[in-house]
Amino acid sequence: QVNLVESGGGLVQTGDSLRLSCVNSRRSFSSYAVGWFRQAPGKAREFVATISWSGHNTYYLDSVKGRFTISRDNAKNTVYLQMNSLKPEDTAVYYCAADSSGRIATMFQRGPTLPSRYDYDYWGQGTQVTVSS
After folding, report:
1. Distance CA 123, CA 55 (A)
2. What is the phi/psi pair of residue 71, to 5°?
3. How far apart are CA 82 and CA 104, in angstroms?
4. How many Cα atoms are found within 13 Å in the side-chain-facing hemisphere of 40?
5. Helices marked H in the chain
6. What distance separates the 2 farthest-apart alpha carbons in the chain?
7. Rounded CA gap, 114 and 59, in Å?
8. Are 48 and 80 in contact (CB under 8 A)?
9. Can you tell me the distance from the alpha carbon of 10 to that of 85, in angstroms, rounded to the nearest whole number?
10. In sequence order, what are the beta bridge partners of 34?
11. Gyration radius of the chain over CA positions
12. Considering only CA atoms, which of 12, 4, 6 is closest in space to residue 123?
């Protein structure tokens, strides 16, 4: 069973940093690719970043490249999203998601393309990130 729990959100100012964490509290997900998505009020859920099960492959939304870094520590069963130089347009609920079916691994093998929310099987409840101007 997979139970993803996000933490680390909060209210910050433009230019500040936050680090989000995603833990699977019920079992190891070291063999799963994990992604971060976000959803702002009135908008569709948007892909932000994803990481392969090994941590060797990552892929980002263009607008966060160079500012956000996804990483994982499989020994701690945790995936992180380090967010630097935050902007008001980063304000959203951030969700982590796990792919247990190998779809993201296939994506990396074929050449990365923008993942869909439907590529992931398990979702956390989300953590709010608010960036004030």
Report:
1. 19
2. -150, 170
3. 21
4. 10
5. 103-110
6. 40
7. 8
8. no
9. 15
10. 51, 98
11. 14
12. 4
Residue 62 near residue 37 (C-beta atoms within 8 A): no
Q: Identify the DSSP state of 50.
A: E
How far apart (Å, rounded) are the C-alpha atoms in residues 48 and 18? 15
Interacting residues of 42 by C-beta distance below 8 A, sequence separation 6+: none
**What pLDDT was estimated at residue 122?**
95
pLDDT at 27: 78
pLDDT of residue 66: 97
Rounded (5°) CA angle 12-25-4: 55
- Residue identified by tokens 């990365």 is 112
Structure tokens at 63: 């607008």
Q: Residue 41 has what pLDDT?
A: 93
**Two structure tokens written together for 5:** 């729990």
What three-state secondary structure class fits 75? helix
Beta bridge partners of 72: 79
pLDDT at 1: 74
Confidence label for 2 from pLDDT (cuts 50, 70 and 90): confident
User: Tokens for 75?
Assistant: 């020994």
Six-digit token string for 39: 């959803």
